[in-house]
Amino acid sequence: MNSVLSFFAAPLIAIQLFMLDSSPEKTCDKADLVVVEIIQPDYNRKIDGTTFEVVFQNKGKSKSSKTPVKAFDLVISLDEAKKSIKDKEKLELISENNSRAEYRTNDEYSDIATNKYGYDFYWEVSETLKALEPKEKATLKFTLKNYWIYDSNYEIRVIIDPDNEVEECNEENNQLDFLSLG
Hints:
About 25% of the residues lie in helices and about 30% in strands.
């Protein structure tokens, strides 16, 4: 009896396994640009400001085109941050920034540009990343003249292809945040 069951069961198990993974593996032949790392900023005495480097990689199978990149002061609410940031220390930093912004917006003598969630000076820098071969990495240097970014806490967001003009395999990996205490 066991051999008869085995005779019928084996094909059924094989069919079930095939049905679990019946779709062929999805492949993508496009470029896939990723922000890999934001390197800790440095104070540059010559410009009385900040410089920092960002590492990018094309993780796709095709060469990318030249692509715009935007780096900017991240201004974010704690509720919004909780949706994408899991690191407890980073969330505490954002909470602290939100509290400082609330306090400083009520200070009539403050010369800092404040808004609902940030209290420091907003900045934005745009650069262009060269075309990258598949698996190639490249580094861009960003410069902020006359502003030391650690003037209190430090929050950066870098987005490659901010307007989604480049068709890629994965549009969800185009940004990276860097947060640190000042």
